[in-house]
Design brief:
The chain is α+β, with helices and mostly antiparallel strands. The protein has 3 helices and 6 strands, in the order ααβββαβββ. It has a 5-stranded mixed beta barrel. The chain is globular, with a radius of gyration of 19 Å.
């Protein structure tokens, strides 16, 4: 009887632990490393959260129409290694004009995975050490 109770508890614990794991995805599952994107626009939102962080920005296309883009980044721990802490978010705030270089979404939406973040003052944060342009 005692072994059955322990087994049932272990099974329940494993099922609960599997729920967050199923929500997590590999970068290659959503983004195409061969689809390089570079956009410049004004930051609208910065979220340093686990398991992934996000930066959203408004970008004007070639016709002047406004497009809303969102870029996924690693979690705060990995960002800190790149020089961006959760406390200062790399100095990002809504309205800042930035350039993002990264990988586009496989579904062709305005969604990408950030590789490099560039500020007008010359600062750059390289999140993913792969060169998105194959250099």
């Amino acid at each position: 009887m005692n072994h059955k109770l322990i087994g049932a508890f272990a099974g329940l614990l494993l099922s609960i632990m599997a729920v967050p794991a199923s929500a997590h995805h590999a970068v290659q599952a959503v983004f195409d490393y061969n689809k390089h994107v570079q956009v410049t626009g004004a930051v609208t939102k910065v979220e340093f959260i686990n398991p992934h962080s996000y930066i959203s920005l408004d970008v004007k296309d070639t016709k002047g129409a406004l497009q809303h883009w969102t870029f996924e980044l690693p979690g705060p721990g990995s960002l800190k290694k790149s020089g961006m802490s959760r406390a200062d978010r790399g100095g990002l705030k809504p309205g800042d004009e930035i350039t993002i270089i990264g990988y586009g979404a496989k579904d062709n939406t305005n969604f990408g995975f950030l590789n490099t973040l560039k500020f007008p003052d010359g600062r750059s944060f390289v999140i993913d050490t792969r060169d998105p342009y194959g250099r």
